[in-house]
TrEMBL record:
<keyword id="KW-1133">Transmembrane helix</keyword>
<dbReference type="Pfam" id="PF00482">
    <property type="entry name" value="T2SSF"/>
</dbReference>
<feature type="transmembrane region" description="Helical">
    <location>
        <begin position="86"/>
        <end position="106"/>
    </location>
</feature>
<dbReference type="GO" id="GO:0005886">
    <property type="term" value="C:plasma membrane"/>
</dbReference>
<feature type="transmembrane region" description="Helical">
    <location>
        <begin position="6"/>
        <end position="26"/>
    </location>
</feature>
<protein>
    <submittedName>
        <fullName>Type II secretion system F family protein</fullName>
    </submittedName>
</protein>
<keyword id="KW-0812">Transmembrane</keyword>
<feature type="transmembrane region" description="Helical">
    <location>
        <begin position="118"/>
        <end position="136"/>
    </location>
</feature>
<keyword id="KW-1003">Cell membrane</keyword>
<feature type="transmembrane region" description="Helical">
    <location>
        <begin position="268"/>
        <end position="295"/>
    </location>
</feature>
<feature type="domain" description="Type II secretion system protein GspF">
    <location>
        <begin position="154"/>
        <end position="282"/>
    </location>
</feature>
<dbReference type="InterPro" id="IPR018076">
    <property type="entry name" value="T2SS_GspF_dom"/>
</dbReference>
<keyword id="KW-0472">Membrane</keyword>
Length: 296
């Protein structure tokens, strides 16, 4: 009797343990599904989860929505998902608060006898609020410059594929798959456009939308020619060649301007560092001779 009761108790405990394990596994999978639907990675850290929660809060969303320039810069940078925008919103809210706390802590520990104790925290709060947007603007400008440089490689490859008999969509698919090393930024945008085309949208409209989001003149001109080629079916090869020559001329003029500015900067450096040394070498013996003559 005792043996049968012990065996039944063990079986009950084993069944309970299996049931608990199954429920924990199902709950873990449900949590992973919810995280994927929210745009979160399944194995992300607690810090990223806190940043995500701060960015999706009402204060974080309002800090981004109040400024239209921030939306434009995020689009130029390629941060168009909800998770990426929430991350920037968290930085926009968290950096000023962190700067305010650090400045107040440092001032309280090392400079407790300040006449105006609110001045340094106020400056820190303002700098912390402006810093994320300035970094965002610099990153977006750098990405726009990379896109403009990659267009010079993109147009000749397009002409080669068009001359081989491919259509616009086929050529863009080939370049998005095979040109990742030559044009990493541009192929990323092309993959997003083609993904929306696969979902049933029209290629010309999507190219027009992505040009408005990126705001790069070279890419806009190229997409205008591609839209002409989509609607008319031909007659765009000369336009692509003319655009390529125009972009080369612009790039040459930009390099000449950069070289002229660099030569001016180098002349200033030479005046500051080379001229004193040259003066010492050339005029030093004369000055020493004059000094000996006056001394004698």
């Amino acid at each position: 009797m005792n043996a049968s009761m012990l065996l039944s108790s063990l079986l009950f405990l084993l069944a309970s343990g299996l049931f608990i394990c199954v429920m924990v596994q199902l709950r873990h999978r449900a949590r992973q599904v919810v995280q994927r639907l929210d745009g979160k990675a399944p194995g992300e850290s607690r810090l990223s989860q806190w940043l995500q929660a701060l960015g999706t809060s009402r204060v974080g969303q309002q800090s981004v929505k109040l400024d239209n320039e921030t939306q434009t810069l995020l689009n130029c940078l390629g941060w168009r998902t909800a998770r990426q925008r929430a991350l920037f919103a968290a930085l926009q809210v968290g950096v000023p608060v962190l700067a305010l706390a650090l400045s107040a802590l440092v001032q309280g520990l090392f400079f407790p006898q300040v006449i105006h104790p609110w001045l340094v925290p106020a400056f820190a709060l303002g700098i912390g609020y402006l810093l994320p947007k300035r970094l965002l603007a610099a990153a977006a400008h750098h990405r726009q410059k990379k896109l403009a440089m990659e267009i010079s490689t993109f147009i000749p490859l397009l002409r080669i594929l068009f001359e081989s008999g491919m259509a616009v969509e086929q050529s863009l698919r080939v370049l998005s798959n095979e040109g990742k090393q030559l044009m990493p930024t541009l192929t990323q945008e092309l993959r997003l456009v083609l993904a929306r085309v696969d979902s049933g949208l029209e290629l010309g409209d999507e190219l027009h939308k992505v040009t408005r989001l990126l705001a790069v003149d070279e890419f806009t001109d190229t997409c205008v020619i591609l839209q002409q080629l989509i609607h008319q079916g031909g007659g765009a090869m000369k336009s692509l060649l003319a655009l390529k020559l125009l972009l080369d001329d612009k790039r040459l003029a930009r390099l000449q301007e950069y070289i002229s500015k660099m030569s001016a900067k180098m002349s200033v450096v030479m005046m500051l560092f080379l001229f004193p040394a040259l003066l010492i070498v050339l005029a030093g013996p004369g000055f020493t001779a004059l000094a000996r003559a006056f001394a004698s």
